[in-house]
């Protein structure tokens, strides 16, 4: 029987071990009252003496040991680190969105035809009567493919941009304006992620809201192109950015803040002393609360995306006129809150579970401290 680690690409594990794995100890113990700056690094359990040779090592070369392979690990901010985050994003977004396809199906139909689909319960009843149980998962293939692509870019580029912007800002400003770093990093990542998602989202909405249009991705994609051309696949990109960029900014910035507050006020022990199970529970809880905020912020644009991808030749003005301003903010909102809250909580739980599996720390929970960041910068210099 294969070991669980065999399911993960071997390039996600470093094949070397060196004194670099002790660098975090040196940074942490350069100032006994300071916490390490990066929200992705945890305290080492024991200090290590400084030496002239180790002082020349770069902070980015810190190694975190894999739980299944002692002595080996992934270098933080190395290509393998970003590859692991990208793969974790594929799992967390693709699988969770596919799982909630029935909720998404009802939501889209409530947004497109509220006269027929008046409520969540009646919506499920109508779909069951007209299409059977199988109909609840119509559009699951474009959902899986589209949100896997989006998740890869969203999480992978978020980690990259967060590190890049932190380096540009410098230690003092990173600690002072950490929320702005989270917002800028997540917005930058989502711009790229939505370009990957948009064609799949267009086909998904058409398949889900126009029975008989297509069975799924294989026949829906060519039919969509034949009907509206390749440009039609990106007709909803503007509204998609309008929905997803605020959503993702709220998703990442509020998650980082909520998790930090949980460890600070609700859990008596530091994050480094908490079990991995407890840390993953915090990730899910923080993700769920963040998801509620995400749903409210992004809901008007979600209505626009559904309308535009369903109606050939429609414009944003047509959508606003048809749905109304109040309808943009309220139509299908309760179901979206339930769906997005659960979805976001599950995504953060899966993402951090994968990070733990390959030997990385869970996301967030350690507030940047200027003194510790400055000490790390000195070591890097």
Characterize the largest beta sheet: strand count, sense, and whether it forms a barrel: 2 strands, antiparallel
Q: Helix share of residues?
A: 55-70%
Provide the β-strand percentage band.
Answer: under 5%
CATH homologous superfamily designation of the largest domain: Mitochondrial carrier domain
The neighbouring-strand order within the major sheet is 1-2
Compute the gyration radius: what is it?
A: 23 Å
Mean pLDDT across all residues, rounded? 80
What's the CATH C level of the largest domain? Answer: Mainly Alpha
CATH topology of the largest domain: Mitochondrial carrier fold
Q: Helix tally?
A: 14
Q: What form results from the Cα inertia axes?
A: globular
Q: Could you give the order of the helices and strands?
A: HEEHHHHHHHHHHHHH
Helix/strand/pairing class, anyone?
mainly alpha
Give the N-to-C terminal Cα separation: 47 Å
Q: Ranges with pLDDT <50 over ≥5 residues?
A: 4-9, 11-71, 369-377
Query: How many beta-strand segments?
Result: 2
CATH architecture of the largest domain: Alpha/alpha barrel
What is the domain total for the residues? Answer: 2
Protein name: Mitochondrial phosphate carrier protein
InterPro entries: MCP_dom_sf (IPR023395), MCP_transmembrane (IPR018108), SLC25A3/Pic2/Mir1-like (IPR044677)
Family: Belongs to the mitochondrial carrier (TC 2.A.29) family.
Solcar repeats: 80-164, 177-261, 278-357
